[in-house]
Give the backbone structure.
Amino acid sequence: MHRSFDEYNRLQSRRQFLKTSGVGLGATALASLLSRNDAPLHGTDHPPRAKRVIFLFMAGAPSQIDLFDYKPNLEKLFKKPLPKSISQGQRVTAMTNGKTQLVMPSMFKFHRQGQNGVHWSELLPHLSALADDVCVIKSLNINAINHDPAKTFFCTGAEIPGKASMGAWLSYGLGSMNRDLPDFVVLTSAYWTGGTRNVQGLYSRLWGSGFLPSRHQGAAFQAAGDPVLFLSNPKGVDADVRRRMLDTVRKVNRKHHAEIGDPEIETTISQQEMAFRMQSSVPELTDLSAEPKNIMAMYGPEVEKTGSFARNCLLARRMVERDVRFIQIFHRGWDHHSILPKQLRGQCFDVDQPAAALIMDLKQRGLLDDTLIVFAGEFGRTVYGQGKLKRDDYGRDHHPRCFAGWLAGGGIKGGISYGETDDFSYNIAKDPVHVRDLHATILHQLGIDHERLTFPFQGLDHRLTGVEPARVVRGILV
């Protein structure tokens, strides 16, 4: 769709109208235009199953072999070379390039859970107890083999920086459901129990708007101090003073907008007004004092820590109640090239109970059916080991050919495992799901045909799923 170009042309013609009209009429027309800022620019293509998305991003890449992809026959291959017929000369990272690839089975036990007996690791007791609400995908795959391009692709649909993120696309396409909070909120965990050595960096382009209007970018909440930077008024400035200041600035911006017709001025006006409203809405959102003790306990002991994954999950539920469209929670520390068993235990302690509580909490409030939860990292981990290569002390390298994640709610079929890998969790044997396919499926559940949600930029109609083929994974849908 070419809304942005058409809008700009319309604004340019409006400039002449505003120049030749009375100030009162011009201001009234512009106010009418601004009142439509939150209207959908695309809308739905079919009835949606979900209204909102919570994306739990495990930055650093969890090991699918130790958490989701049960391979019991690997035990008899301990420290034996990975067959070349399996690796097939695959490109590897510089950390294992030229080194012998020795099979390292998982030291953790797996149990069948739910009515269909899906295998879950002992490290995820709370999530596995909800197996019938969760769909595990074992055949995710991505092209990138290093963290930066893989994370960028997972969040924006392209390895090259500068593209619009998933949440920005949804804000652009579907509009806002809450005028007092951003469409797209980002929460980053500030604590990792695993004591990990490798904490991959995060960068604002992962939640940026790219070529889309800047009002669609994610609002990153802070772990300490004001949830949003500069949310509080400076000393000596009360709400009335701030209101008068914004009114004056708005008049100046409207005059400038009438003269040049730049849509980003319209964005500035609307964002300043949003910031004013957030001075009331955000403190109310983040104040957990009224949450019942049993709900707090359900999320686990870490919920008391500001910036913890547990607290962020509880905040996500509160945002869902307030109709925030897209909530992205980053939890870092999953880059386990060594001492994986120790670090993985800590990471799972951080996320297992809170993620399970989020599912249960939404379900008991009747919100899970129209809220889609997605849990994944940027790629997986190799069957061959790194580090000391002991049965209880090993690491794993990056592996983009196959990895695992899970989905719940939002019209997803619970209690199933989708996709299969070979005996080494190295290659996909059945039902591959590229990250592009996952993007297409997320959009589909929100009522959007991924091929129709486009934005013209530099001569190309861009879309989240890019130009390569992508499909909706209908086998996981109700």
In short: Residues 51-242+291-476 form a domain with the Alkaline Phosphatase, subunit A fold (CATH 3.40.720). The longest strand covers residues 380-390. The radius of gyration is 24 Å.
